[in-house]
Design brief:
A hairpin with a 2-residue loop joins strand 51 and strand 52 (836-839). This protein is 19% helix and 37% strand. It contains 13 helices and 53 strands. Helix 3 (44-59) crosses helix 4 (79-99) and helix 4 (79-99) runs antiparallel to helix 5 (108-131). The N and C termini lie close together (6 Å). The relative contact order is 0.13. The longest helix is centred in the last third of the chain and has 28 residues, at 860-887. The strands form 14 sheets. Strands 2-50-49-45-46 form a 5-stranded mixed beta sheet, covered by helices on one side. Strands 21-22-24-25-23 form a 5-stranded mixed beta sheet, with no helix packed on it. A 5-stranded mixed beta sheet has the order 34-35-37-38-36, with no helix packed on it. It is α+β, with helices and mostly antiparallel strands.
């Protein structure tokens, strides 16, 4: 017979013993205090009142952290509690300051005041958290980690190229429109020092349908017949949902059909170069799209604009017209359109290199291509192939602000960029009279020039300027590699004499055989008014500079055959009547200057096309010696409205102008609200050889820079393949794939030792950096490169369970840690004890606030981010308090608290349920049940 044990008896006993229904025998035990009352434990109303008063005090300039104000209501309590409470109250007050930025109708003055108080408060809390010492816990302002891994990575050599064009959508067995017609291209493949020339002609397929499968088989058959390993394949690109605006609200549409693109799998022992028997001209256009002021108010900043890079095929005589792509606002002749990163704010210069690649110089205000920037604004150099694929991005690494204004590429592929910089710029060679990164002139900008080698690795950076603001606006290479610069300055440059207001200047930099760069000369020019250079070209041993001077268009020619340039000619084209010069080019011994004007009678030779009305774009071709010539020609372009030229490019006898359209344009009706235009003018006859008018997002398009490749368009464009060699290698230098500069630093600490400074050196790679870190950490860390998502990242782990590693940011303006994508904090190993994760070194429990030093309130997104970070930090303080409270409470009391908590809900703990089950099993055995 089985004996049944009534489990309700033990349940009732448990509840009566531990405060369940009606019991109170442990109330005295549970009522005793073992830790002081935390500031967040009081009523919500009182908390709100205290925070409000603290925020008011902070706004009056009082400190946020005050240990003496932290009240402990338990005599003899650990001093750790007082520090935690002071830290929590400081964080809570700072959180309240940040929340003020969400107030309605704040003026810019009020916002600036809140940001100032917040910045000051964050610095105070950061300093306190970094210096506070605890007895029973370990608290770090940074993160707690078991491994640290850089977010940025060194590129891994690829062996595949994915075409940039969706050839078709849906079923891959259908005929591909891009394969129709006379599709011919060549592949030169070098293998073991032997070059194989493979001609691909789809006409050889005869009547076979030109489906993706059939074309791939045809191409791969050709490659196999030549004994090559490189192969073509297809790549499915999943469709993505689209978002449109309906009635002012975003509406998400279902995902589009999957699309298919070509993929080239290159054998590791082969080098592939694409070409085509027929070429046509192409023009690359950088533009801004989107309504910059939707509500029409100058007091708001509600515009959302984006930057794009477009490619136009300008001749269809030998290369078929590119098919219409799926992008918005397509216009006849557009081969492709690429959206630039959201952080790109301006593009002022583009150019085509000798390898057919397109270089874009941009201003960025946030991370670009995965590279964080140091300051508020930086300069980025981006390289694209002819198919629109981004090959690399190089950032300048300015500590505060930088602006990119000029770009040039030499015949051997070197790249120079120039502009202005404010604040620190590590690794740059300073001039004798700069505004500098510190001191009374530090808020003024300096000119900078940076030279990269053909692989995009920085060779040198020169920072040259005056005490007042100055900037470099134009660049040109000489045949011997000398870099010429034009710019302007508000005060005297070294070795010059002030003329008045903004003065123009020309300058030359040249490296000797050892690579040491010297300033060959600096020469000022201009009028007594505000001057601004607009173009610079090299003509043998002479420089020609175009400049806006007191509203007039002026050209100057300097003989630079010696170290002392001499002015040999000046030509004043006349009053621009509110317009400005845009650029200068040289072609066939003649210079071409372009701009915008209302003056229909500029002094620039024979007028072959007259001013149409309002402001028009214009281009003038002049003798390079600047003397008046019967061959000088001038042509205007525009309609009756106000049209504006923003960029000019000259090559192969062709003159191209891009800009913003007013109302009507010759033969080009309006497309959107504010359109862009691109035109080729025949200055001899005034004829418009080619023109397009186009628009962008929300009916707005504003071209800002153009570049010409007279042989840039081929049938490869429609296939999404680039002209030239597929180069899968990229620089392994840290400064090439991040914003880190030579001289930037961060610190590390192993255990209880001393901090060691890690300084980035010229040519630094992850390999050399790993060696430095191992040594600095006393070989107590395992530092290695690991491949993650196709890039090599630097990884740091403790060597053993006893090792702890700390990472610290470098000085402001010189920090390399954040730019590498590493986080401040402690790296340690952990173990699990009683279900809890604890440090493996057996010492005090660790807590990490995860509080960044760069929090800000500059916009709503940053405010929300800051509030989330502060909340997370406060939660860590609570966790530290909970740990101290638990550690100071007797185990018997903790057991009673757990039991009471469980009993209050009527639930018997698992251990007691298990005991009852064991009793029942024993009875069953005794009774034979």
């Amino acid at each position: 017979m089985a004996i049944s044990f009534d489990t309700n008896l033990l349940t009732s006993y448990y509840q009566s013993r531990y405060g369940g229904t009606g019991a109170s025998s442990t109330s005295a035990l549970l009522g005793k205090k073992y830790a002081p009352t935390a500031p967040w434990s009081i009523t919500n109303t009182k908390i709100d009142e205290q925070v409000s008063e603290a925020v008011k005090s902070a706004m009056l300039g009082k400190k946020l952290v005050d240990e003496s104000a932290a009240k402990l209501d338990l005599p003899g309590a650990s001093a750790d509690y007082r520090k935690l409470f002071a830290l929590y109250q400081g964080l809570s007050t700072l959180n309240g300051v940040a929340e003020r930025m969400n107030g309605k109708n704040l003026t810019s003055t009020e916002k600036n005041r809140i940001q100032q108080i917040f910045t000051k408060g964050l610095a105070e809390i950061t300093a306190y958290a970094d210096s506070a010492e605890f007895d029973q816990i370990r608290l770090n302002r940074g993160e707690l980690m078991t491994v640290a891994k850089t977010k940025i990575g060194a590129p891994v050599a690829k062996e595949e190229y994915l075409g940039g064009v969706a050839l078709l959508k849906g079923d891959s067995s259908t005929v591909v429109p891009a394969f129709a017609g006379d599709v011919k291209f060549t592949m030169s493949i070098k293998r073991v020092n032997v070059t194989h020339n493979v001609a691909i002609d789809l006409n050889d397929m005869g009547a076979t349908p030109r489906t993706l499968t059939n074309v791939l088989a045809h191409i791969n058959g050709k490659l196999a017949a030549d004994g090559l390993e490189t192969r073509f394949a297809s790549q499915r690109v999943p469709g993505e949902p689209r978002t449109i605006t309906v009635g002012g609200k975003p509406v998400t549409l279902p995902a589009t059909q999957d699309s298919w693109a070509l993929k080239v799998k290159v054998d590791s022992g082969e080098t592939v170069t694409f070409g085509a028997p027929s070429t046509a001209g192409s023009v690359y256009v950088a533009q801004s799209v989107g309504d910059p002021n939707p509500d029409g108010k100058t007091t708001t900043n509600d515009g959302v604009t984006n930057r794009q890079l477009l490619k136009f095929q300008t001749d269809t005589t030998s290369v078929p017209t590119p098919p219409q792509d799926d992008g918005a606002n397509w216009v006849d002749g557009r081969a492709w359109a690429e959206d630039l990163a959201k952080s790109v704010q301006n593009v002022r210069a583009t150019t085509v290199g000798p390898d057919g690649a397109v270089y874009v110089l941009a201003d960025v205000d946030a991370a670009v291509s995965g590279q964080e920037i140091k300051g508020a604004k930086d300069v980025a150099l981006m390289k694209y192939d002819s198919a629109g694929k981004l090959l690399y991005t190089r950032t300048l690494g300015a500590a505060d602000q930088a602006t990119g204004m000029a770009l040039a590429v030499s015949a051997d592929g070197k790249i120079a960029i120039a502009g202005s910089v404010t604040g620190g710029l590590e690794g740059a060679t300073d001039g004798p009279l700069n505004s500098g990164a510190t001191g009374s002139f530090a808020t003024n900008s300096d000119s900078f020039v940076t030279l990269f080698d053909a692989d995009g690795q920085e060779v040198w950076t020169q920072r040259r300027g005056a005490r007042q603001a100055d900037e470099a606006t134009n660049l040109a290479f000489a045949a011997d590699g000398t870099v010429y610069v034009a710019g302007r300055s508000k005060s005297t440059m070294p070795g010059t004499t002030a003329i008045g207001d903004w003065d123009g200047y020309v300058e030359a930099f040249k490296a000797d055989a050892a690579g040491k760069v010297s300033t060959v000369f600096t020469q000022a020019f201009g009028s007594t008014g505000a001057d601004k250079p607009a173009g610079l070209v090299v003509d043998g041993t002479s420089l020609v500079v175009a400049s806006n001077e007191n509203g007039r268009a002026v050209l100057r020619r300097f003989d630079v055959s010696t170290a002392t340039p001499s002015l040999t000619a000046t030509r004043d084209l006349g009053d621009l009547q509110g317009g400005e010069l845009t650029g200068l080019g040289i072609d066939g011994g003649q210079v071409v200057v372009a701009g915008t004007t209302k003056n229909g009678a500029l002094s620039a030779g024979t007028i072959t096309r007259a001013l149409a009305g309002g402001t028009d774009a214009f281009a003038a071709r002049l003798d390079a010696g600047l003397g008046a010539s019967g061959a000088d020609r001038l042509a205007y372009y525009g309609g009756t409205g106000d049209d504006k030229a923003t960029s000019v490019a000259v090559a192969g006898g062709q003159v191209w102008i891009a800009g913003s359209a007013g109302t009507d344009l010759p033969g080009q009706p309006a497309v959107g609200k504010k359109d862009g235009f691109l035109t080729r003018l025949d200055l001899d006859t005034g004829a418009i050889d080619w023109s397009r008018r186009f628009t962008g997002k929300e009916g707005y398009a504003a071209p800002s820079a153009i570049a010409i490749d007279t042989q840039g368009s081929t049938v490869l464009d429609r296939l999404g393949l680039p002209k030239g060699t597929l180069d899968f290698t990229d620089s392994a230098q840290v400064s090439a794939f991040s914003s880190v500069r030579t001289g930037d630093q961060f610190q590390v600490l192993s255990g209880s030792g001393a901090k060691k400074t890690i300084t980035i050196e010229t040519g630094e790679t992850f390999t050399t950096l790993a060696t430095k870190l191992k040594r600095a950490l006393g070989f107590q860390a395992k530092v290695e490169t690991v491949t993650v998502e196709g890039v090599r990242r630097l990884q740091i782990k403790p060597m053993n369970d006893r090792s702890t590693i700390e990472l610290f940011e470098g000085k402001t303006g010189k920090d390399a840690l954040s730019l590498l994508g590493l986080t401040e904090g402690i790296i340690r190993n952990t173990i699990t004890e009683d279900g809890k994760t604890v440090p493996s070194d057996g010492k005090a429990m660790m807590f990490g606030l995860g509080l960044p030093t760069d929090l800000n309130l500059k916009d709503s997104e940053q405010v929300n981010h800051t509030l989330a970070e502060l909340t997370a930090a406060m939660n860590q303080v609570r966790a530290a308090y909970k740990h101290l409270q638990t550690a100071s409470t007797p185990q018997a009391v903790l057991d009673a608290q757990k039991a009471a908590a469980a009993a209050s809900g009527g639930k018997v703990p698992t251990y007691l349920t298990n005991q009852i089950a064991n009793y029942q099993a024993a009875l069953n055995r005794l009774s034979g049940g």
